[in-house]
Amino acid sequence: MAIQSARIRLLRDVPPREEASYVLYLMQQAMRVPFNPALELAVEEANRLKLPLLVCFGLLDGANGFPEANARHYAFLLQGLADAAAALERRGIAFLVRRGTPAEVAIDLSGKAALLVLDRGYLAIQKRWYGEIANGTECRIVQVEGDVVVPVEAASTKHEYAARTLRPKLHRLWDDYLAPLTPRTVEHSAKGLTLKGGLDVSNPERLLATLTLDTVVGPVKRFRGGHTEALKRLKTFLTEAFAGYGAGRNKPEAGAASHMSPYLHFGQISPVEIALAIRGAKDGDRDDRSAYLEELIVRRELAMNHVFHTEGYDDYARAVPDWARKTLAAHADDARPTLYSEEELAEGRTHDHYWNVAMREMRETGYMHNQLRMYWGKKILEWSPSPEEAFARTLRLNNRYFLDGRDANSFTNVAWIFGLHDRPWQTRKIFGSVRYQSENSLRKFDAKAYERAVARLCEAETA
């Protein structure tokens, strides 16, 4: 199956270098081997040029580490890299992980490359890396979209107001992109390449111990990184929990979640692979499929649209719409009956018992059900001294504890709490006309059953 042309962008249009040792692929966003269009395009180019393929990865730590990433995130990432390394070796593809920024690693290795293939990423730091690479190397550069179903520019050329404005555009296009991706045969093995300065990723725990990181927030047992684990979870979800997903997805105690978000965040599974599996599932009905694809494609790609078109998506003044900031400012001096410090929030020491339970799940296991994430965020807005401080707190807590934090979805969902992709509602204190969520929303599910489930999960972390 050919890779759709809309996924491919030529960043430097020069002929491939004739005197070259390999084709180079910087694997940075799509950290997987299966269903990776950038990897398969790199294989095609290596075959055409009769060269081996070298895949590289830039691993940051210390002062140059990825912003807000900690030992929890790095443990999951390294597990994924170990899984990818084994899969690449089986295909005769070399894999080199080096300390340094992705730009530094790619630029250094590009000197012997016929051409360079890049992933696509939408965060500001990723755009900066790709800009540095484009300016720092002279070889041909091809960028391939593998992180969304419908490429962002193909879906829309503007910032979309809400899911309802993007949804019909995606529905018209997504069948063209929901296609299998056949692994290409590697014709020239990379086993003969001499590579220096690489890190051994075969033992993620040992490598993690050598990195300079924030270790206060440590790894979790609930999730293990890598495409192999992601696929195992997806298959279990489809056979054991998918039937009834449409009705059960908003009930945290129902066990209806697929838990794909950490794997999607780290690029360890393709959204196309998930969507095809959902469409082909034996269990579940039309409502289940529709509900899941709405979350996987429409809501997730609305988030990509937001960060792509928003300069300063992590800044309250630029990420939150004007109408919402005005109404929140008008009520900024409203009396707040309860105020908590960020430390009290992080430790789950509030008067709201079930909010504390949700915070415990987040803090100790790296995950929280979507139904509770919204309630969690609205309460931070209610319990903070100002909307600006509430935004900053919510984002910091989100990015610190969630495995899928620091993501386009994270930045978008936090801004949604403050009015993004929403409309004005009835005016009330503190919130103005921004949507409010009360404790009554907890009555929509079995909160006690959810608490018991969280207790079991947290006990497993310390077992």
UniProtKB/TrEMBL annotation:
Co-factor(s): (6R)-5,10-methylene-5,6,7,8-tetrahydrofolate
Domain named Photolyase/cryptochrome alpha/beta: residues: 21-152
Listed EC numbers: 4.1.99.3
Organism from which the protein derives: Methylorubrum zatmanii
GO MF term set: deoxyribodipyrimidine photo-lyase activity
Keyword set includes Lyase: yes
UniProt enzyme class: lyase
Source organism, top-level taxon: Bacteria
Keyword Electron transport included in the entry's annotation: no
The name this protein goes by in its record: Deoxyribodipyrimidine photo-lyase
Family annotation (PROSITE patterns): PHR_CRY_ALPHA_BETA
Classification via Pfam families: DNA_photolyase
Record's keyword terms, sorted: Lyase
InterPro entries linked to this entry: Crypto/Photolyase_FAD-like_sf, Crypto/Photolyase_N_sf, DNA_photolyase_N, Photolyase_Class-2, Rossmann-like_a/b/a_fold
